[in-house]
From TrEMBL:
Family: Belongs to the TonB-dependent receptor family.
An example Gene Ontology molecular-function term: carbohydrate binding
UniProt subcellular location: Cell outer membrane
One annotated Gene Ontology cellular component of this protein: cell outer membrane
Chief location of this protein within or outside the cell: membrane
Annotated protein name in UniProt: Contig67, whole genome shotgun sequence
Organism: Pedobacter lusitanus
Length: 788
């Protein structure tokens, strides 16, 4: 028996050695995304074996000395649909396989939060090209402020986060912003604010857009008409909203702060069905506050439910509803008084911060609602359809006192506005993304059509003279003017604009290092304004306009994480304000931008840097040109030119989060006219804006979870009114700081703003009598509770 066992072992041993030494082959390959971009850190596994590896930064992988045989290879990565493939490894032969992974909606939902925690850098933006390609290969200056930045700064409105963007600032406490020296203002630029890349601003110009349901905020600098039609020539803002997740997650936030500020919010998400195909998200917010300014009480209610149904990895449908209700004592702040000295200079510190021309009898009520239905279907790895319908309706009812004329003997004349309006936007967008090859060239193509019907169904406006008041001792007993006082201006009309646009775009890859982006859009506008009663003293206003909008860009990647680019952008924007009472009708606005730039990712792609040089020429831009008789007067400039350079750095290096930026901008008038002289500076356009926000997160030790941050922002002087180049707001520097402590499910955070209590002006509204005033020293204390 012992001999038989010995013989069996002896016979088995050489066969075992022979099996171990059997001939082998090798496997090499590359994994890319649907957009032809390499996927690093993807998992490549031989099923039921110990053979596995991950892809490098260029998406490459390799296996050597693989025993010959038949295997099942599994390729996967977070955010992508896994692929399985049967393969045969032959002895002495090299097998090469290339894989292309499509995005998985469900997996993306699950990783959306955890992947971004404590990180400032966002790698991709699908908005600027409507293709999910890295910012590195996008031939346009794009900056993204992540949700983590919003939380670290305890920013609750776009105005409060705007100073995180290089070259952007809020001009006042309402919806006016400066980007690359141009004023972006909702009524003038219908698509200045986008939601998930779709036109239809939820908020009116008198409001600060809320961030309750916002995941990221994107700034696309320069004219972006090739995809989005009209917009500010300096850039557009895109809100990326929070979507339903496949993983249960509940977050509750409470904040208190200066001037009786109170804020509550809840963000709930997860699956509604066992198979995780039906997902929901519910966001609820409430805030109420006073101000260091008189009569600036404000209350907001925000509700945003959304549903996503995942038919499969290739098909999904999302419905998102937003409702925002605002009640205010003042719909917006008309600004702090500014004294004109006898010699024509200005004293910006003469009048106290709190004084205002507005009356305690004024009020504002706004109801905004939107519904967005988005359908995505991926026919194959190469063809995808997206269809979106967005409907927005905003109702405003407010009364307001405004300054009229100049300050004399510390008193001011006033006008009274009574306005009710109902505004709407219906946007339908459908586009196909198609990927193909022609020889050695790879094409990522987008072709689509937009239909937008927008305007107002009610615009009931009256302007009356109001009583003159003493600035230091105002008497509001005669506010508002009596019904018997005759209106000097009166509107009662409706306006409907129909826009049809078609476009095609192709990103061409000429090898691995050179990419070209070509776009062409055609827009056709038809608008009509119709009086609704005899009170409207206009005869109606009609507009027909059409034109082509081209775009071209070139990107070269000398190294894996460095790119240089050049781009040419144009815009074609009909005037949305042709009101005769404001000086209209006005000629069509046209912008042309030339830009060259550099982008680079460093420290294992943790830090993103960019430099951009640009020139924008803009013809027929509308600017405020008030007179003592007409504070609403506007005038079209024959031409302006904005030259500039921008630098920005965003990311996370070990335990440090950083956002840094510097922008130089020179925006001047090109021709002399009654409005201004050649070379005059444009209003609300400082030449220098610099900012830095740095946060350190403690990852180990007794105080693990502690974070400390500091920020500084510098804005150089800026002209407040084009027609008066001596009206110059002084430069200012503001310091901020923050502390937070995260322990388990809780996070406690304290933010302090304007630490030195600097008195500074953010910009002008319409004249030299008042100016937007920045907040003095204030604080916010917040606590959040997260379950996931």
């Amino acid at each position: 028996m012992k001999i038989k066992v010995f013989l069996i072992i002896l016979l088995f041993f050489p066969f075992h050695r022979l099996s171990a030494q059997s001939p082998s082959g090798s496997l090499h390959g590359n994994i890319i995304s649907f957009d032809n971009e390499p996927i690093p850190d993807a998992n490549v596994v031989f099923q039921n074996t110990t053979l596995k590896t991950t892809t490098d930064a260029n998406g490459n992988f390799s296996f050597k000395n693989v025993p010959a045989g038949t295997y099942i290879l599994i390729v996967s990565n977070i955010g992508y649909t896994a692929k399985r493939q049967n393969i045969i490894i032959e002895a002495g032969k090299k097998l090469r396989l290339n894989f292309q992974l499509s995005k998985s909606r469900q997996e993306l939902n699950e990783v959306a939060i955890s992947g971004a925690r404590n990180h400032y850098k966002v790698k991709n933006s699908s908005t600027s090209t409507r293709m999910d390609i890295p910012l590195l290969t996008t031939p346009q200056s794009v900056q993204i402020v992540s949700n983590q930045v919003i939380k670290d700064r305890q920013a609750f409105t776009l105005n409060e986060i705007s100073n995180s963007f290089t070259g952007m600032k809020a001009n006042n406490g309402s919806g006016s912003f400066s980007i690359r020296g141009f004023t972006a203002y909702s009524p003038t630029d219908a698509s200045f604010l986008l939601y998930n890349g779709i036109r239809g601003n939820l908020y009116l110009w008198s409001q600060q857009p809320l961030l309750y349901n916002i995941e990221n905020v994107e700034l696309l600098r320069g004219p972006s008409g090739a995809l989005f039609s009209e917009g500010s020539p300096g850039g557009v803002i895109n809100f990326v909203t929070k979507k339903p997740l496949a993983k249960e997650r509940y977050e509750f936030d409470l904040s208190v702060g200066s001037w009786d500020f109170r804020r509550l919010s809840a963000d709930l998400t997860g699956p509604l069905s066992k198979n995780k195909k039906l997902l929901y998200r519910a966001i609820i917010g409430y805030d109420k506050s006073k101000s260091f300014r008189d009569y600036q009480d404000k209350e907001n209610i925000f509700i945003a439910p959304s549903l996503t149904y995942l038919f499969s990895d290739q098909t999904d449908l999302n419905l998102e509803i937003n409702y925002a209700h605002q009640k205010t004592n003042q719909q917006y702040d008309n600004g702090t008084y500014i004294r004109t000295n006898p010699d024509g200079t200005f004293d910006f510190n003469y009048y106290p911060n709190n004084l205002t021309v507005q009356s305690p009898s004024d009020y504002g009520k706004t109801d905004n609602v939107s519904a967005t239905l988005t359908f995505n279907h991926q026919f194959s790895d190469r063809l995808k359809l997206t269809a979106v319908h967005r409907a927005v309706n905003s109702k405003l009812d407010y009364t307001d006192h405004i300054p009229v004329g100049k300050i004399r003997n510390d008193s001011i004349s006033r006008g009274y506005q009574d306005w009710e309006t109902s505004r709407f936007s219906l946007q339908t967008t459908a586009y196909l993304a198609y990927q193909t090859n022609t020889g050695s060239l790879k094409h990522n193509m987008i072709t689509g059509v937009d239909y937008n019907r927008y305007g107002w169904t009610k615009n009931d406006y009256q302007y009356k003279p109001a009583t003159r008041i003493s600035i230091f001792n105002p008497d509001y007993s005669n506010d508002p003017p009596a019904e018997s006082v005759k209106a000097q201006e009166s509107d009662d009309n409706k306006r409907i604009t129909n826009l049809i646009g078609v476009y095609v775009q192709d990103q061409i890859s000429l090898g691995e290092k050179l990419k070209a982006l070509l776009s062409l859009r055609y827009d056709s506008y038809n608008a009509k304004e119709t009086p609704l009663s005899a009170r409207d003293n206009k005869q109606g206003d009609e507009l027909q306009a059409s034109g082509f909008i081209p775009r071209a860009g070139l990107v070269y990647l000398p190294a894996a994480h460095i790119s240089v680019y050049a781009s040419f952008l144009k815009s074609f924007n009909p005037q949305t304000s042709n009101n005769v009472l404001s000086g209209g009708p006005f000629p069509t606005r046209r912008a042309t931008q030339y830009e060259i730039g550099y982008k680079g990712d460093f420290f294992n792609n943790a830090l993103s840097t960019s430099v951009a040089l640009y020139q924008i020429r803009y013809a027929n831009i509308l600017a405020s040109a008030p007179t003592e008789e007409n504070s609403h007067r506007q005038e079209a400039l024959k031409g302006t030119r904005s030259n500039g350079i921008e630098f920005s750095a965003t990311g996370t290096i070990q335990n440090f989060n950083i956002i840094a930026g510097y922008a130089y901008n020179d925006h001047v008038i090109l021709t002399t006219s009654t409005f201004g002289k050649k070379g005059d500076r444009f209003n609300n356009a400082p030449k220098h804006i610099a900012s830095l926000w740095l946060k350190y997160n403690v990852a180990k030790g007794v105080v693990k979870g502690l974070g400390a941050a500091a920020g500084v922002r510098y804005v150089s002087d800026q002209v407040g009114q084009i027609s008066n180049q001596n009206f110059v707001f002084p430069s200012y520097t503001v310091f901020d700081a923050a502390l937070n402590y995260r322990r388990g499910k809780y996070n406690i955070q304290l933010n302090a703003y304007n630490l030195t209590d600097k008195r500074y002006f953010t910009g002008s509204r319409s004249g030299t009598v008042t100016g937007g005033l920045g907040d003095p020293l204030n604080y916010r204390l917040g606590i959040s509770y997260l379950i996931q």
